[in-house]
């Protein structure tokens, strides 16, 4: 073990132990101490789920990237493992950037990650190339021959300055990976490679590219089959807003749905959609569970606003609640992992015809799972419905549905924030079979909203003090609804 890795492990063990459990969300993973960004190496290995993450243990701001490490058996309760990687070789001296993990046939866990290395006399002159580390799930040995995918394997026009975030998998007796790069025309491209041993790689093809839309540099690719489709997930930088309102400007996340011919290594794009409509969601990564579910987790922050975010703890950054992915009517949908139901307590169910304002006894809190089903077909005279939460006489966040436009407005401008950043999001929300469902998950300052059983999802963070835990419902015109509220413990 290198001195730099040993130093990081000693530091995180000491500092992490000093952070009380009540200083963290209940089930959203936070770093052991210091800074967290992208999820890395999300995998199932030796009876547990492993999630690594971009990590700087020494401060709550971004620094030379390490890999933090946590494990869970239920995707909700996380145990920290020692720091897995530190920037301690020539191949990754400027940082161990994002990557993924796969189990080798011999039972070892392989980490394929981006090593950032000096490329010139100036400290700003760096290359991003792909490196390999092999281990037992706790300790890893980096390949002496790193990088295993170097500049010689970049296709013509590919940039070594932006060449990162490999997603590795093992299939049909060979390793495969996709990697992001930016080409000579400033367009993001997703490159496909294959290898017999994860060390000797061959470039196959470009699977897809920006095509002068959906941002520029594409980061953090994930490539996998889901039911009868093949999905390519990417996180574009420099997105423009789309005229239909589906995509917001800035850092975005995009799902490309299509078909994949393995023999020809050809991906045919058929549909494009956002992955999340919220203000805090980036760099998603997925795994396949032993029972066959495709589960996704993402960084619950935003690069455009993260530097000005308040530092209230000795840690900064968190992951979303893991989500199960599925297709419905040709669209990627998401729902909270079913394990969340094991945390349900004190269930309250109400069926009402609401016309005006309502507050229900026992329906409150900041750790909850609340579903409100609106019977739009039976409520033709309803002009607007509003759900307010994390509320008291000073603060509130609201979700407002307009039946006239079949649109949902999310507004956190009253949550207590003092930052001039995006606080509003609008998304399409048409009833399905006459009903609209809104499922709200709250975990302290973490908010995740699932519309119509995950047809659309919105993730956001709140600056609201913990004591603001009220919930109220408001209807302009009579509205028939059902409410199911679970406290989460």
TrEMBL record:
<dbReference type="Pfam" id="PF00251">
    <property type="entry name" value="Glyco_hydro_32N"/>
</dbReference>
<dbReference type="InterPro" id="IPR018053">
    <property type="entry name" value="Glyco_hydro_32_AS"/>
</dbReference>
<dbReference type="InterPro" id="IPR023296">
    <property type="entry name" value="Glyco_hydro_beta-prop_sf"/>
</dbReference>
<protein>
    <recommendedName>
        <fullName>beta-fructofuranosidase</fullName>
        <ecNumber>3.2.1.26</ecNumber>
    </recommendedName>
</protein>
<dbReference type="GO" id="GO:0004564">
    <property type="term" value="F:beta-fructofuranosidase activity"/>
</dbReference>
<dbReference type="InterPro" id="IPR013148">
    <property type="entry name" value="Glyco_hydro_32_N"/>
</dbReference>
<dbReference type="InterPro" id="IPR001362">
    <property type="entry name" value="Glyco_hydro_32"/>
</dbReference>
<feature type="domain" description="Glycosyl hydrolase family 32 N-terminal">
    <location>
        <begin position="28"/>
        <end position="336"/>
    </location>
</feature>
<feature type="domain" description="Glycosyl hydrolase family 32 C-terminal">
    <location>
        <begin position="344"/>
        <end position="477"/>
    </location>
</feature>
<dbReference type="InterPro" id="IPR013189">
    <property type="entry name" value="Glyco_hydro_32_C"/>
</dbReference>
<dbReference type="GO" id="GO:0005975">
    <property type="term" value="P:carbohydrate metabolic process"/>
</dbReference>
<keyword id="KW-0378">Hydrolase</keyword>
<keyword id="KW-0326">Glycosidase</keyword>
<dbReference type="InterPro" id="IPR051214">
    <property type="entry name" value="GH32_Enzymes"/>
</dbReference>
<dbReference type="InterPro" id="IPR013320">
    <property type="entry name" value="ConA-like_dom_sf"/>
</dbReference>
<comment type="similarity">
    <text>Belongs to the glycosyl hydrolase 32 family.</text>
</comment>
<dbReference type="Pfam" id="PF08244">
    <property type="entry name" value="Glyco_hydro_32C"/>
</dbReference>
